[in-house]
Amino acid sequence: MTASLNARNAVAALVAVLLLLLPLYSELSGNIFVLTLFTRIVIFALAAASLNLIMGYGGMMSFGHAAYLGIGGYAVGILAFEGVGSGFIQWPVALAASALFALVIGALSLRTRGVYFIMITLAFAQMAYYVASGLARYGGDDGLTIYKRSDFAGLINLSSRVQFYYLCLFCLAGGIYLIWRIVNSRFGLVVQGLRSNEARMQAIGFPATRYRLVCFVISGTMCGLAGALLANNTDFVSPAIMYWTRSGDLMVMVILGGMGSLFGPVIGAIVYLVLEEFLSQLTEYWAMIMGPLLLLIVLFGRGGIMGLLGRFGRG
Amino acid sequence: MADALLRVRNLVRRFGGIAATDNLSLDVGRGELHAIIGPNGAGKTTLISQLTGQLKPNSGTVHFAGQDITRLPAYRRSALGLARSFQITSLLPDFTALDNVALAAQAHHGHSFHFWRNARKEGQLRDAGRAALARVGLEPRANVAVAALSHGEQRELELAVALATGPQLLLLDEPMAGLGVTESSRMVKLLGELRREVTIVLVEHDMDAVFALADRITVLVYGRVIASGTPAAIRGNAEVKRAYLGDARAVTRHG
Amino acid sequence: MLLVVEQFLNGLQFGLLLFLLAAGLTLVFGIMDLVNLAHGSLYMMGAYFAATFVAWSGNFVIGVVLALGATLLLGIVLEVVALRHLYGRDHLDHVLATFGLILFFNDAVRLIWGPAGLALPLPAWLTVPVQIVPGVFYPAYRLAIIVVALAVALMLYLVVMRTRIGMLIRAGASNREMIGALGINIKLLYTLVFGLGAALAGLAGMMQAPILTVQIGMGENILILAFVIIVIGGIGSIRGAFLAAILVGMIDTLGRAFLPDLLRKVLSSAAASTAAPALSSMLIYLLMAIVLVVRPEGLFPASRR
């Protein structure tokens, strides 16, 4: 067991160091693009990590997680549009709105299981997409430009690429640390137990839905934070961020990295987005390669990348 | 029985056109070891499931310690002191043996909306878990993943998990299914010790064990009670012999 | 009044189209336990095939028939080459693999037909308004959709409930191993069922094509509606899917048509025009939410499982 952990820990540590030193590399080499690319990757890694909490550890396959990226983003965008530029107001609102949405949607969706849960979370996220498209005041389909990034009163300047990157990285690190603590806590064991054998858990005295719902809300809130970060990153928010294929992207990142592994989502986000970037340089029709690639991964790549590393460690 | 711990009255459960439980009534006294026997298909597991809440009856009532629990969900019954072991081993396969029993203890030691402290380092829970494991003799295997345990050890773990919830009433569904000779006799000895601490309802096919342990026996055939009484009375009951015991002589220990 | 009748019929037509789509999905899910997100892609391919073959042959009917055949063939090829390897796996694997297929199809269509989308013009004899009741006119084409969809639904019912193949399909849904043990070629059965599902999706796509444009991604939007219908209608139930589809079609169409006016009576004009589109699109999801609260197993679930 220690052998396999070593390979995974080594990779995780290596990636962490690389992420920390990236801005330095960007400064020295003058390559700004890599910094902006990885800012985006780090934000999506946070979103993927939040999804991993309910999918990998909780066994809840939500196909609607991109909705929270939109809710967090629109919270920032709408408040900025209405003249409220302070991050101290925008971001808590983003978190609260995401939590509320997760509470309502979770309460409804958790009345179902399996593929129906997948369909329902998908449907509700698409509903959010349609609602946002209908908000003519806030740009509707065309989206909403954010002219000034969230203002933190001199504490940190989001317009500075380097500062913003480190803020995102800090949020990611914080998110993963939080997930680590949750997963090993009483609450986390219950949620994992429910994934493992719900009937058994009910028989020993745990009410299932209650715990799942709280997990769902925590996950949605964390993703809402990613949404607020994303809106600042692109200086723009539109319904497209909530389109269901984005939820699919998040799912792929989680599974690619290895479900139920702490660092998997980070690896998954890096690999998926770098691959997407690389393929789209090659050809305009990169999805024609990505699509079948996904198919092959499902058929042959069990356990994702972290799972693969685990096997290598043992061998 | 006036102060029965468990009182079942006119329980009915249908599946389509078949009555798996057919107007069943039963009393279990506090402190007794009550065995339920019957041929395959008699509806024993269906009955247990209705007692613990995995299944809801179509009609009839179940009272536990004077309280009507007929419509109560499973997790609430566990809180009241009902514990169950499953006929088909139902554990948490991704966890270790100790994790399984510690979780069972956790369910009965306050709430679980704690998000920060490492639950595996909570001494109270781990000790309670180890105690349950020690009871069934699984302490040396505490840190082994469930998937790596032998079938016999898993059956013992089933019992340990039920015990870890600190129950008043243990409902055991064929705890000796698939056990070898040594393991079976160990289980019988264990049940003999447990009966002094907790009321037990035991569903079993192993007739030697049943007659050695039971204070009272209820015989189920096609969802109905055809006889209920002391082992001696059951042994002498002609109808029971005809329906069940005659064939049961051929039913020996498995394994 | 005329407007209400017209919208009512529009709702019926939309609902029937949704049923064709949902039926294919339910069939495949019920028999092979396969979650096929690419079902929407088959809907899109049906539309693209129809637009292409109609333009190529110059004849509407010939084009449609060819397109149906092409979609059926595509479905069979898809099943044999890719999807049959997914049977028995986790539903999550299905979701991911078919999600990959969607990406592939969308880009493949963009490669072959370009990003702009196509138009499927109707022949003259289908554009005439038909007088269904004295004074009430309805476009012939939409009437044709209703008739064809009802006919297909009836045929589906007869095949599934009254023929030997249908019996195998229903039996296979309940117990796969049994069917295999009876010596029936399970692989062939599954391929045929999938082909049937694909044909239904393609038919829905090509029927809808003249009304909406034929474009990339058209499948995804409507697929979600199919999911909503299955959830509302009930688990594993084609009858439920039929009733739910009509219900959803009606609510969506009538809601979009009349909600803005209703809102304007209650709210200010500005508020109404902002809220109306958003609220209209939310209606069916609200319905789904209500169903989930009141009857999570759906309105008309099949009693098995």
Protein described:
The complex is a heterotrimer of chains A (315), B (255) and C (305). Chain A has one domain (2-314): Orthogonal Bundle (ABC transporter involved in vitamin B12 uptake, BtuC). The N and C termini of chain A lie close together (11 Å). A two-stranded antiparallel ribbon of chain A has the order 1-2. In chain A, α6 crosses α7 (186-196). Chain A is mostly helical and 315 residues long. Chain A has helices at residues 2-29, 32-57, 66-81, 87-109, 114-133, 161-184, 186-196, 198-204, 208-234, 244-257, 264-282, 287-300, 304-314; strands at residues 144-145, 236-237. Chain B is of the alpha/beta class. Chain B has two domains: 1-81 and 170-179 and 198-255, Rossmann fold, CATH 3.40.50.300; 89-166, no CATH class. Chain B has nine helices and ten strands. Chain B has helices at 44-52, 74-80, 97-106, 123-136, 151-164, 181-194, 207-213, 231-236, 238-248, and strands at residues 6-15, 18-28, 33-37, 59-64, 67-68, 82-85, 169-173, 199-203, 216-221, 224-229. In chain B, a hairpin with a 2-residue loop joins β1 and β2 (18-28). The longest helix of chain B is centred in the middle third of the chain and has 14 residues, at 123-136. Residues 250-255 of chain B have low confidence and may be disordered. With 305 residues, chain C is mostly helical. Chain C contains twelve helices and two strands; from the N terminus they run αααααββααααααα. Chain C has helices at residues 2-32, 39-57, 60-81, 91-113, 124-127, 140-162, 164-174, 176-181, 186-208, 218-233, 238-266, 269-294, and strands spanning 129-133, 136-139. In chain C, strands 1-2 form a two-stranded antiparallel sheet. In chain C, α2 (39-57) packs across α9 (186-208) and α11 (238-266) packs antiparallel against α12 (269-294). Chain C is globular, with a radius of gyration of 20 Å. The chains are: A mainly alpha (315), B alpha/beta (255), C mainly alpha (305). The A-C interface holds A 61, 63, 108-109, 111-112, 114-116, 118-120, 122-124, 126-127, 130-131, 133-137, 244-245, 248, 251-252, 255, 285-288, 290-295, 297-299 and C 29, 35, 82, 85-86, 89, 91-93, 95-97, 99-108, 110-111, 220, 224, 227-228, 230-231, 235, 273-274, 276-279, 281-282, 285, 288-289, 292-293, 296.
